[in-house]
Structure formats: C-alpha cells, structure tokens
C-alpha cells in the first residue's frame, strides 16, 4: 500500500470512535440543561404535604398551618357547633350539601370533614382571596343575633359557617376549599395527602 493510500478499516474505526466520544460529550453536556427542568428543593418543599399535630387542640380552638403557601385551618368543633351545622340548610346557605365546592369525597357532608369534630379548611375566601376572620361564638353582637358562628371575610363581607359553607346573599360564590388530607393517627393529620397517596 502506498503512503497516500486510504485504509478504509482505519477510517471506519476513527469515524466510529469520534462519533462515540462526541455522543458521550453531548450527553454529559445535556445533563445540566435537563436538570433545570426538575423542580428545585424549595419548590418541592412548598408543595410537600405538611404534618399537623392536633394533640393540644382544645374544643372551640383553631390552629393554622401553611401548605402550598396558603393558610390551612384546623378547628376542633364542639358538640353544640356540630348540632348547629346540621340545622343550617338551603334557606341560609348557598351550597349546603357541598355539591359545587372543592373538597375530597369524604367531606361531602354537613360538617365537611372526615371526622365531624375536626374541620380542615384552606383559610381563603372564595371571592377574591382574602383571609376571613374566625368568629365561632353564635349570636355575636357585631355579626347579628342570627349568627351561628363561623368565618367572616372583612374585605367584602362574605360569611361562612363553621364548615366553611357560604351564606346566601354574599359575594363569595363557593364554599371554602377543603384540602386533601388524611389522619396519620388520632393526634396527627397529613395535609396535602390522601389515604391512597394522592395529593
């Protein structure tokens, strides 16, 4: 073979080697680019389920947790408050049976919760996103003699009962949102996660 002759086997070997090395290089260069599509640790933490301890929650009391950047209220209702919820109907509430509202299937009832005693609710008015005040005392003078206890939004006057159901004649169009949640045990609730693992 002369000095200027081309060796086809050598050419194929060099071309193949260059292609493999180039492919590996392109793959390694793509890793940081593809990694930018993954949510950051902070973003994952914002959407992560939150464990709530209700062991110290007394009757009539409310605690607030933060989930997905929103306040989530847990209220421990008294037997009297639960009885009042069952007495409220379509003459007072816009959606008493929670047919139009956002909540897990287990919360489609008069108390809108898995266990009647505990209400778990996103603490945001469904009108324009303000955070209502908690007025659990029935007949509160500032709220009127017929006030059964519940939540009052100071922004535009929307009223909700102690199940987060919206009253008739107020700006809010829907009942307050019940987030997905599950009981870990008798004293702990996981907000943002259902029994089947769904969020």
Description of the structure:
The protein is 22% helix and 20% strand. The chain is an alpha+beta fold. It folds into two domains: 1-38; 49-191, Rieske [2Fe-2S] iron-sulphur domain (Rieske Iron-sulfur Protein). The chain has helices at 8-35, 41-47, 79-87, and strands spanning 50-53, 62-67, 70-76, 118-122, 133-135, 150-152, 159-161, 181-185, 188-191. It has a three-stranded antiparallel β-sheet, with no helix packed on it. It has a three-stranded antiparallel β-sheet with strand order 2-3-4, with no helix packed on it. It has a three-stranded antiparallel β-sheet with strand order 5-6-7, with no helix packed on it.
Write the layout of secondary structure elements.
Elements lengths: L7 H28 L5 H7 L2 E4 L8 E6 L2 E7 L2 H9 L30 E5 L10 E3 L14 E3 L6 E3 L19 E5 L2 E4 L8
Gross morphology: elongated
Low-confidence stretches: none
- Distance between termini? 71 Å
- Taken in chain order, the helices and strands follow as HHEEEHEEEEEE
CATH superfamily label of the largest domain: Rieske [2Fe-2S] iron-sulphur domain
CATH class of the largest domain: Mainly Beta
Number of domains: 2
CATH topology call of the largest domain: Rieske Iron-sulfur Protein
Radius of gyration: 29 Å
Task: Count every helix, treating DSSP H or I runs of 4 or more residues as helices.
Answer: 3
Helix content: 10-25%
Question: Structural class of the helix and strand makeup?
Answer: alpha+beta
Largest sheet: 3 strands, antiparallel
The averaged pLDDT comes out at 87
In total, how many beta strands? Answer: 9
Q: What is the second-level CATH architecture of the largest domain?
A: 3-layer Sandwich
Strand order of the largest sheet: 1-9-8
Q: What fraction of residues sit in β-strands?
A: 15-25%
């Amino acid at each position: 073979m002369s000095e200027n002759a081309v060796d086809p086997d050598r050419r194929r070997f060099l071309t193949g080697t260059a292609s493999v090395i180039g492919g590996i290089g392109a793959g390694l260069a793509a890793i940081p680019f593809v990694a930018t599509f993954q949510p950051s640790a902070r973003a994952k933490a914002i959407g992560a389920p939150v464990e709530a301890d209700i062991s110290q929650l007394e009757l009539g009391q409310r605690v607030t947790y933060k989930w997905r950047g929103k306040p989530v209220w847990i209220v421990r209702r008294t037997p009297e408050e639960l009885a009042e919820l069952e007495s409220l109907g379509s003459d007072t509430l816009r959606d008493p049976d929670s047919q139009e509202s956002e909540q897990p299937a287990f919360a489609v009832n008069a108390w809108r919760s898995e266990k009647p005693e505990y209400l778990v609710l996103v603490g945001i008015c469904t009108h324009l996103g303000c955070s209502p005040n908690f007025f659990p005392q029935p007949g509160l003078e500032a709220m009127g003699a017929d006030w059964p206890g519940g939540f009052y939004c100071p922004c535009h006057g929307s009223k909700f009962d102690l199940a987060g159901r919206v009253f008739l004649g107020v700006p809010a169009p829907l009942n307050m949102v019940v987030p997905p949640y599950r009981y870990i045990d008798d004293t702990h609730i996981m907000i943002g996660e259902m029994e089947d693992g769904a969020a």
